Amino acid sequence: MNIDFVRKExxxxxxxxxxxxxxxxxxxxxVLNAIHEYLTDWxxxxxxxxxxxxxxxxxxxxFAKMIGAGLEEVASVPNVSSALTALASSVKYKPGxxxxxxxxxxxxxxxxxHLQKKHGRANDVRLLRKDRTGVVPLDEWxxxxxxxxxxxxxxxxxxxxxxxxxxREITKxxxxxxxxxxxxxxxxxxxxxxxxxxxxRGRCASxxxxxxxxxAPRRRLPIHTP
Length: 226
What we know:
The chain is an alpha/beta fold.
């Protein structure tokens, strides 16, 4: 990678060291050009859906290739909150079951699951607390997840302190309690839903390697796409 070229593509880097990429990442020149092209197209042709739809499908295909998934396994949604809400309202919960989450999750990935309890979809929401080192130890996940667990929802990298969760190990624990990879088999078992919008700047793990059931990344910011 030519870092000088990358810096030229992202003008803000000539003036400051920018670290808030998980909040609002600055757009690159390519992205600005694409936005301008889209706005011009919108201005001149209105809703040019016949031209836009293939671009959306192609972006899904490219993203699927990046994470080791199939095109049919990727959906475009407005934001992570919408994705999590869609997942929360579509999965089949175990009767009298529980949901396991972490206080290191982004707030949206906490409040949503408490709401499922309010709606009667779960008897218990188990919120795991970080220890003095700022992490939730793996054995705490192991204690919290049991055969009654419907969903395990975890951020790949915490927005609060940058802690990178052991997604593969957490998913393995969930799968040992009658879990499955949700996008492959529609069965009422435990789901592991990692939120990856904080993680991609570090790396993009293969969906096949970590064997998660659903992944909810935010596509703007670190990738610098509109």
